[in-house]
Amino acid sequence: MVRILLAEDMLMLRRALVSLLELQPDIEVVAEVGAGDQILPAALAVRPDVAVLDIDLPGIDGIQAAAQLHEQLPQCRTMILTSLGRPGNLRRAIRAHVSGFLLKDADPDELAAAIRAVAAGEQVIDPQLAVATIQAAENPLTARETEVLRLVSEGEDIPEIARRLSLSPGTVRNYLTTSVTKLSARNRMDAVRIARASGWL
Q: What integer pLDDT is reported at residue 139 of this predicted model?
């Protein structure tokens, strides 16, 4: 029996996925959550074999949660199930040690087969997204520039970003200026839009 934790913030879709998965004789959903910051505590409580995670979750996103799971519960393998099929997201997921990456329009039998494969130690990646990722441009931003831009996207102002990252406000402004330049953006919010569209945030 493959024991599953499912993270999806849309209740109707989450319940539909639970119902679909529980039609499989060898798959059991042992926990379901609606926010990214609920994933790790739930996983530590129930010790699932596979965590099936949406990317776009409140709290923290599914890829950040996957990285936490890899660090604190490495025996739990992770799989992203998302409508956000962007090459940058797949690259982030691979860096977070995600074992599977499927789009939400996948056939239910394909999803079940992918979960079994991930539980068995294999990697499963949507083939069209894999090709698009190989062809797509790399993220030109450094890790720190990406982090600063992500905090801007969450509505943080420069003094707060500086405090959270232990930087001076001037250094934060420099990171933002560099990000805007690298992305050929009009301003910092345009840089956020470009980075989001590319799956880099």
A: 79
